[in-house]
Each structure stands twice: as C-alpha cells, then as structure tokens.
Amino acid sequence: MSQLANQVAVVTGAGRGIGRAIALKFAQEGADVVCVSRTAENSEKVANEIRALGRKAWAHAVDVSDATAVAAAGEKILADTTRVDILVNNAGVTKDGLLMRMSDADWDTVLNTNLKGAFSFTKAFSRAFAKQRSGRIINISSVIGLMGNAGQCNYAASKAGLIGFTKSIARELAGRGVTCNAIAPGFIETDMTNVLNEEMKTALLKQIPLNSFGSADDIANATLFLATPAARYITGQVLTVDGGMVM
Ligand SMILES: NC(=O)c1ccc[n+]([C@@H]2O[C@H](COP(=O)([O-])OP(=O)(O)OC[C@H]3O[C@@H](n4cnc5c(N)ncnc54)[C@H](O)[C@@H]3O)[C@@H](O)[C@H]2O)c1
Fold first, then answer.
1. How far apart are CA 9 and CA 150, in angstroms?
2. Which of 119-153 are b and which e, b meaning 16 or more Cβ less than 10 Å from the residue's Cβ?
3. How many domains does the chain contain in total?
4. CA of 131 to the centre of ligand 1 (A)
5. Is residue 247 part of a domain?
6. In which domain, by residue range, is 89 found?
7. Which pick of 27, 31, 160, 226 has the fewest CB atoms within 10 Å?
8. Quick check: 1 pLDDT over 70?
C-alpha cells in the first residue's frame, strides 16, 4: 500500500523515538521525508534508513526553539523539495519539577521547544500550504496537555497550548484546504519515558484501561491516518492514543 505516494513530509524530532517511527512509517507508505533533529548525526541516520527504503530523504540539524534557524531551514527545505505536503511537529522535551522549584530557564526551554517550535515550523510552511491549497499539519501534543500533571506544569502548558494552536490554525487555513490536527499520546515507551522508575511505571499502568504502554508505532499509525486522504474531512481535532487513559 502506498497511501502517501508522491507526497513530501517534514517531521521534526525525527532522530529517534516517535518522530523516527513516523518518518519511517511515512516512507514505507511512499512519502519522501525531511528529517529534522537537533543533531546532524541523528537526522542523517534516520534519513539513511529512509533512503534504504527507496525513498528520498533530507537531513537537517535545527534547534526548533530558534525561530531564525527554523525560518532559514524552511526556505532551504522548500528549495530542495519544491513542495511540502505534510508537516509533523513532533520535537519535544521535558524539564520536570514542582512549580515552587521550577527555574525560568526550564519553563522557557519547554515552552520554546514544544510550543514555539511548532509555531515557527507551521509559519515557515503556511504560505506554501495556502498557495498550493492543500496541506496536512499534525501536532504531537500529550494527554498531559488535557489532564495536567504534578511536576510538569511547563510541559502541560506547552501541550495544552499546542491544542489551542491546532484549533486556531485549523480555522485559519481550512478555507485553503489545509487541515490541522493534534495527537495526544498517553504513555509511550521511548527514551523520554525510560527515565521513569518501575514504581512510577506500575502506578501509571493502573491508569490505563487497556493495561499496557503504547509503542512509537501506535503513534505513527495514528499520524499516518491523519496524513492520508481518508482523513480529508477531519480538522481541528485532538486524537488521544493512550489505551483509554482519557475518555
Ligand atoms: N513518550 C511519551 O510517552 C510521550 C507521550 C506524550 C507525548 N509525547 C511527545 O511525543 C514527542 C516525541 O517524544 P519521544 O517520546 O519520541 O521523545 P524523545 O526524547 O525520544 O524524542 C524527542 C525528539 O525531539 C527532538 N528535539 C527535542 N528538542 C529539540 C529541539 N529544540 N530542536 C529539534 N529537535 C528537538 C529530540 O532530538 C528527539 O529526536 C514529543 O513532543 C513528546 O512530548 C511523548
């Protein structure tokens, strides 16, 4: 099956975890993929995995929190690919701590990466999407943006902000045939969650009706669906992929 044949996708945070799974899934479905990651080493590694699948790939080392660097990367990407059809804003970080102990730097890093990064990348391609009268924007939020979490006020604010951003962009660009949706993953086994100890994982499992953690591939499958023609009539939505944590 080639659900994304002849499409070009940009995936941020594609160097590992969920972003890598999305980039590879898209390539398996026939898309050419621009891999954006913090380090050239990681983005190039995944770009090579995509080339091995017979698709075109471009690797970019960009800090998504640096608006000037994102604008420059956006121009370079459009020059290289001539067209972008899908943007997945996936890059994200956590800097956990209770409010009383949270530094301004930890607040700023998380908001600037998770929320401003998506703003800058979406802005970089919005004109091209509007002009071609098509485009899919998929923002990777989190169930924490819906539920909140003690010790993650910066992360929760960034992910809730991403949901408001998604709905606003969906309304702004709908008239141009562009959709914008968010995915809210629950607990997904990646490097980001490997830092949690067994006690925390056992407590988390009790909150998941399907009684298991998710995989990066679970998120990649949902992201693929929102990128395919089958989702053409869906915009401004938040799809939770969380084993039933939020319902
Ligand atoms: N793992 C989970 O349980 C879970 C749950 C909900 C949401 N999410 C979200 O899914 C996304 C991917 O998470 P993951 O679990 O794969 O995490 P990860 O830490 O394995 O991967 C995050 C990726 O984002 C990149 N990144 C971080 N800051 C960046 C920056 N400033 N510029 C460019 N790239 C940057 C990293 O290099 C990495 O490739 C994140 O937005 C995360 O918040 C994850």
1. 35
2. bbbbebbbebbbeeebbbbbbbbbbbbbbeeeebb
3. 1
4. 30
5. no
6. 8-238
7. 160
8. no
pLDDT tens, residue by residue, 51-62: 999 999 999 999
Tell me which of 20, 42, 60, 93 to substitute to probe ligand 1's pocket, judged by most ligand atoms within 8 Å of the beta carbon: 93
pLDDT tens track for 195-208: 889 999 999 999 99
Q: Mean pLDDT throughout 123-130?
A: 98
State in Å: Cα 175 to ligand 1 middle: 31
Query: Is the model's pTM score more than 0.90?
Result: yes
Residue 192 has pLDDT above 90, yes or no: no
| Atom 1, ligand 1: residue with shortest CA distance | 188
pLDDT, averaged across the chain? 97
Q: Is residue 62 part of a domain?
A: yes
* Domain contains 91: yes
Ligand 1 binding residues, C-beta < 6 A: 12-13, 15-19, 37-38, 62-65, 90-93, 113, 140, 142, 185, 187-188, 190-193
Is residue 243 situated within a structural domain?
Answer: no
